[in-house]
Amino acid sequence: MRVLPGSAGPVRRRRFAKTLVIGAALVTVGLAYTVLVPRSATGADGPQSDQIEAGRRLFAVGCSSCHGLHAEGGTNGSGRIAGPSLIGVGAAAVDFQVSTGRMPAAQTKAQIPQKPPVYTEEEIAQLAAYVASLAPGPAIPSSDEYDVSKVTQADIVRGGELFRTNCTACHNFAGRGGALPNGRYAPSLMGTTPRNMYQAMLTGPQEMPVFSDSVMLPEDKRAIIAYIVALQQANDPGGFGLGRLGPVSEGLWGWLIGIGLLVVVAVWIGAKVPRIRRRD
Predict the structure, then answer these.
(1) Can you tell me where the transmembrane regions are (predicted)?
(2) Is 66 marked within a binding site?
(3) Which of 11, 37, 249, 270 could form a disulfide with 245 if both were Cys (CB 3.0 to 4.6 A apart)?
(4) What's the whole-model pTM score?
(5) Would 47-134 and 143-233 be classified into the same CATH topology?
(6) Would you say 170 is a known binding-site residue?
(7) Measured between alpha carbons, how far is 94 from 225 in angstroms, rounded to an integer?
């Protein structure tokens, strides 16, 4: 095969130009990655990474026996689920469950009750950061999202309407909770903080449905929280609240006291009336 004189030079130049373009593209991508990534994620040796690593160690000691070493979920000896997968539940779910003492649970029941928390606030933040690093999920809300210090009376009224529409079937019209099937129950909201209320609506713990931002707007969640806070601070104008359980408790006391007093009075009257002896 004959090679024309002078033809090898242009071919080498074209190959060199392609190599130069590819190299420039790789350098550009590398520079862009270097510039942009530190703004959206902390480096491998940053504070966020240290918090995640601390959370991973806490999780391995206190949570992995039920939820699996990598939060993939676990089963007990009989094959029943000991703890669900936590991948994708987000930091908000961890913060709610652990800060209310529901997790870690001593044993699995139909309903995990609230109790004093086992971990400190710093340790809870570490556990939440670790679980959040596994997959995207609802983040811990900022204080602005559940702050009700500046709500108006109209917001409280609207929150009451939303609460009666969406929540009273389980939590009672006064937020005192109620029984559910199969040994479950909706807890009272009288001791719940606004932060945990928001996180419960955001994550749907246990039997509660999830009220995501696409289902219920953040301002509507804040209005519901404002209404519950107003219930927590409300006095009982009638004297005794009777648990604010509605007509059941009121009717029970009506029967016990009202009918009881009538029976006592009837017996007293019968004892005072002189007996008439029959004559033969």
Answers:
(1) 252-271
(2) yes
(3) 249
(4) 0.70
(5) yes
(6) yes
(7) 20
